[in-house]
Amino acid sequence: LDEAAMAQARDLQSRLTKPPGSLGVLEELSVRLAGLAGRCPPPLPEPAAVAIFAADHGVHAQGVSPWPQEVTAQMVANFLAGGAVVNAFAAQVGAQVTVVDVGVAAPLEDAPGLLVRKVAPGTADMTRAPAMTADQARRALRIGIEVAGELVAAGHRCLLTGDMGIANTTASAALIAAFTGLPPERVTGRGTGIDDATHRHKIDVVRTALTRHGLLAQSAREPGDGRTSPAAAGPPQGAAASAGSPASTPDGAPVSDPLRVLAAVGGLEHAALAGFILGGAAARVPVVLDGVIAGAAALVAAALCPQAMAACVAGHRSAEPGHTATVEHLGLRPLVDLHLRLGEGTGALLALPLVQGAVRVLHEVATFDSAGVSDK
Amino acid sequence: LDEAAMAQARDLQSRLTKPPGSLGVLEELSVRLAGLAGRCPPPLPEPAAVAIFAADHGVHAQGVSPWPQEVTAQMVANFLAGGAVVNAFAAQVGAQVTVVDVGVAAPLEDAPGLLVRKVAPGTADMTRAPAMTADQARRALRIGIEVAGELVAAGHRCLLTGDMGIANTTASAALIAAFTGLPPERVTGRGTGIDDATHRHKIDVVRTALTRHGLLAQSAREPGDGRTSPAAAGPPQGAAASAGSPASTPDGAPVSDPLRVLAAVGGLEHAALAGFILGGAAARVPVVLDGVIAGAAALVAAALCPQAMAACVAGHRSAEPGHTATVEHLGLRPLVDLHLRLGEGTGALLALPLVQGAVRVLHEVATFDSAGVSDK
Description:
Two copies of one chain form a homodimer. Chain A is an alpha/beta fold. Chain A is 48% helix and 9% strand. Chain A has two domains: 50 residues, Orthogonal Bundle (5,6-Dimethylbenzimidazole Phosphoribosyltransferase, Chain: A, domain 1), CATH 1.10.1610.10; 306 residues, Rossmann fold, CATH 3.40.50. In chain A, helix 6 crosses helix 8.
């Protein structure tokens, strides 16, 4: 972040015709985006594009979701036909939708709005083997970086994360547990809305996968006990502490090797999303994160390159418990909090006008001097 | 609210290609707006218009704000020149801005974007006399109803409240205390950002005005003690209880006469805003409320016509403490919560795309059947 541009933005905010500080969180956001761009005012974050990374998950075989795996491909078709909620919200806020197949099980063909960059037809079942090979994880990561670069090259000045993949909240929970050190029962939610029995089973599946790959934090090893153990019950850590907790993960699986963690329990869309975040940050373009899938990917990106978080805006707070743990761990403050748990990029899109409004203030609002308004 | 249309909306939401309930608060909102319109889907709430009701306050003479009273008129000029935050946000979300002078102290002339409907050049000082006569309050109320009607007649399908008036958080605190029965120290905030001494003085001014007009609730009569008294410390009441607490106000000032309360301690813009809400509700058009000024006006509108709340959407949660008490009292759930305390309509404008997105889903999203997506 460029300190000079941030100082300029703070000074400008204090001279605009409004009580100082009265834009609250949006004022802070405008200062950070000036720092990201290295100038004040920073460019308006528009046009904006949401990239929906779609992939399937081998862990679906463990019965963690009531939805058939085919729904991933069916929803991709729905996105392309313009029939999903993400399309309605994108139309509302004026964002372009791009779908990227990084690992859908079904064969898909290139189509308008769809990039077929399939690394594999879904991941392996993480309870039995690493979900991805290291090479697959790297390739998916690179695809995300490339897609970000292509969208920025096409003129987009704001990137939004989207995702589709039946069972991807299970992989997200595993990533979040691995990177935050929290126990599976604290970070595993109900996804699309599973019942109590399936939820208990899903927590067990996440625990099994983490144990198999040596990623279960010491404090999380006693099932049902994690909630009261010191590490897990501790206060949330800020962004600066991101690298602290996971480094203590035993069994030779420190997050000093985030790619190994990603490959072990992540999804191909998580890998691509992590790359997308890195690519956007490298281009100094704001990246508005959707919910828990994007948050899990952001943990990977932050572990690979902590500075990338400077470009990230948490679009909304998902109803998934793991998401709140994630944004606290990353030191991000979600802009919208409406109990959404849909994914696709919907929460990021709802936040887009807030991000754009925050920056627009620096471009268009008069100062006390210029408007002839008396200061107090 | 039309129950049949709401049932239709609930049924439609359950068939759309998304997990049931996954749009959280926005799903409930879409159902309510279908009930308001009496059909499903309800009309898209666009185009939208924000009406900024501007007025001055006699209580300014008590030194409750560090800003000179002239700023009200100066900011009106700023709105008309397009230089305020409300203009930037309105441009961002595609809303039209109309300024209505219902009581600015300085003489203003009609101009593009300005309606001069001045009832009086500001209110009287509520610590010494009723702020308005009953006739003034009624005239301002009627102006609000008329402006809502004119905007709807011009084709607007969503109304947003805006306000401008130095010292209007003081009048708002007095209205909120009178209608909720909470003590002044619970509902009086720092407005544009006053210091501790001015804040204590402002609370005293609100208490003095309420006492003079017989509007201080029994539970709030001991300064500094209200916080622990049963009535004030009680849990927030839902919408249905709106008429409960204030009815116990003694000294012949029950809120069964909301117009008397409004005239005693309100502002001309509060009166006009209450009318604007009633006018929007009568036209069955959603009215997105801004912050604490709009909330105080909504208490008046709810006391006059509880059914009008069906049309109201709380745009955001203001940083003012009285606002949280107000939305709880009214049973409203703010959509945006970013510590804004600017007013002008800015918080309502930020919520507009969320309201529009919620309704757009009912218009544009495919069902499982139509999209060929497998249901679980």
